[in-house]
Amino acid sequence: MHLSFHGAARTVTGSKHLIELNDGTAILLDCGLFQGMGQVTDKLNGYFGFNPQRVNYVVLSHAHIDHCGLLPRLVAEGFEGKIFATAATMDLCRVLLMDSAHIQEQDAEYHNRNSKEKTEALYTEDDVTKTMSLFKIVDYNEDFEISDAVTLRFTDAGHVVGSAAAHLSIREGDKKIRLSFSGDVGRYGDLLLKSPQQFSQADYIIMESTYGDSLHKDLEPIEDALLEYIHQTCEVKKGKLIIPAFSVGRTQEVLYALNGLELKGKLPDVPYFVDSPLSLQATEVLKDHPEVYNNGVKEVMKRDADPFAFKGLRFIERVEESKALNADPRPCVVISASGMAEAGRVKHHIRNCISNHRNTILLVGYCEPTSLGGRLMAGEKEVDIFGERLQVQAEVGAIKSMSAHGDCEDLLHFLSCQDPQMVKQVFLVHGEYEVQQKFALRIRAKGFKHVAIPEYHERFELE
């Protein structure tokens, strides 16, 4: 049996890990799109490193595009097997993959209008429709037989709605191998979701490591931080507060925190806009799956049926309405995708606001270092936006405690249910290499002797 790594290898995007059994059965863990990798992004997304036609099954941890975004491309290149996921993950994938296909087709059309070298979209909406027909729902904590030799169990990973850690029991002859894939691990004590669940003893663990050298817990409560930024920006400076936020997870957390301020009578009386049609759809999916809420949210819902709505909130859908926000002189809060500020409507809002000292750009999640959000977070005083060099006069802030990824203590907590002596190998994925090296030292200090940091396309034998 072999395990190879075709994405999220010494980087935080493009998650793809392939298990190949001796009888030829191939199981792909996640099939994510590479994002924010500069000029090599298209090349990385155009080459899997394996033959999609030879993959029998896909096990999907969650619906973020860097974990599911190449599924339609996999199908377009010949994959015809089943895709196993939780019900909420399937519902989110339907929304996010259709949006992604629309973007792929738009980008290809724009390129072909402006270049002699023609290109094709990575995939189309028809590819997404075919992909969704291959999904098979697997409930949390259910032992599900993928094949005669492979059993799958999902446990809640607490990362986003529907997210799961995947645990495979694989039989080959007289041998049985237990392999666990963390997916992305959420926070213990998350604002909305249940904490990550414990899982049975594994022989091999594929472990994410995004924040393997960071701690979030020393930062101020989210509601208090948001209140201070709104007060200082909108009420004192009379400016706009621009919050780049991922459509899935982060936007809903911000809305929940703002709703909490309203319930306490503290929410400033200014307009609040969510400028992302995708965020509206993702919020509706979250409302459709209350089984993922933690006890705190369930208590709030006893007195507030909709914990993501409050006075002054408006969802923006049409492009014309989005453009009108830039001309609106009123102090306001604009929550818009993408979270790294690398694309989408929020990039236009930042361009409009970045050179005015009254405004604030508030980053509330992980930003890849080369992305616009990452460069702003690093303190750059000039940035390029749509080919224009702009001075950063607006205040740039961050609430790092809002990350959907667990910090190093959360990751170690996730592993604490394991007997390190019984784990043959831990493979660290989904992290920057320097961070992974530091996290590997922490894991070894906990007794996990064999820790590997795979390179792109590297292959390992599992015994």
From TrEMBL:
Q: Where is the Beta-Casp domain?
A: 251-376
**Which GO molecular-function terms appear in the entry?**
hydrolase activity; RNA endonuclease activity
Q: Which PANTHER family match?
A: CLEAVAGE AND POLYADENYLATION SPECIFICITY FACTOR FAMILY MEMBER, INTEGRATOR COMPLEX SUBUNIT 11
* Domain (Metallo-beta-lactamase): residue spans on this chain: 13-246
Q: Does the keyword Flavoprotein apply?
A: no
Keywords of the record: Hydrolase
How is this protein named in the record?
MBL fold metallo-hydrolase
Cleaved signal peptide residues = none
Report whether Hydrolase shows up as a keyword of the record. Answer: yes
